[in-house]
Design goal:
With 202 residues, the chain is α+β, with helices and mostly antiparallel strands. The protein contains two helices and ten strands. The protein is globular. It starts with a helix and ends with a strand.
């Protein structure tokens, strides 16, 4: 009985060993991770390969776009610099007072003024021909009669308002009285400006 038991036990052991060899549980479960790592490394390798190729294309694309933008930017700035050299576009015919920038350079800066006497002009309150032109901003101008509507004294620009030296009356750039003895505004005149100067229609 003991011999038969040993024989049967050895056969079972051989069967178990053979089954273990035929179905290696550890190695089969271990091989997919190694295969997975291989796939992952392969995919990462391919992605890194595609990354390097896309990197080279983006760098070449970047250099191409930078060169094209810089060249177009250069041409834009050069063409923009020649535009102010164009001739006058404002109407100069009729009763128009011309104030060229070459003679009145203060009008080229915001806050600059020019006080002139205009032949052929007479303001409706005082009957005088004094006009003040004010640059209120880049390319923006107002022209007003500079005769105060209270006592016809000549107003001057303080940098923020028009001031009458006789009684302290003040006016804004629209000609409206902001402080003083009159309710009548300074007469406002139509202006036009281009690259050469300011033109006031009298």
């Amino acid at each position: 009985m003991s011999a038969d038991t040993n024989t049967v036990g050895r056969r079972k052991l051989l069967v178990l060993v053979g089954a273990a060899a035929a179905y290696p549980a550890c190695s089969s479960s271990g091989s997919p991770p190694s295969g997975g790592e291989g796939d992952a490394s392969a995919s990462s390798g391919s992605s890194s390969g595609s990354g390097s190729s896309s990197g080279s294309s983006s760098s070449s694309g970047g250099s191409g776009s930078s060169s094209s933008s810089s060249s177009s930017g250069g041409s834009g700035s050069s063409s923009g610099g020649t535009k102010p050299e164009a001739g006058p576009s404002c109407t100069t015919s009729g009763n128009v007072l011309s104030l060229p920038f070459s003679k009145y350079p203060a009008l080229m800066q915001a806050g600059g003024t020019a006080s002139v006497t205009a032949s052929g002009y007479s303001d409706p309150v005082c009957g005088q021909n004094n006009i003040i032109v004010i640059a209120t901003g880049p390319g923006q101008y107002v022209a007003l009669s500079s005769s105060c509507t209270h006592a016809c004294c000549t107003v001057s620009w303080t940098g923020s308002e028009l001031h009458c030296p006789c009684h302290g009356t003040t006016f804004n750039t629209a000609g409206q009285c902001t402080n003083g003895r009159t309710s009548q505004p300074l007469q406002s005149l139509q202006t036009c400006a281009d690259a050469t100067g300011v033109y006031v229609t009298l």
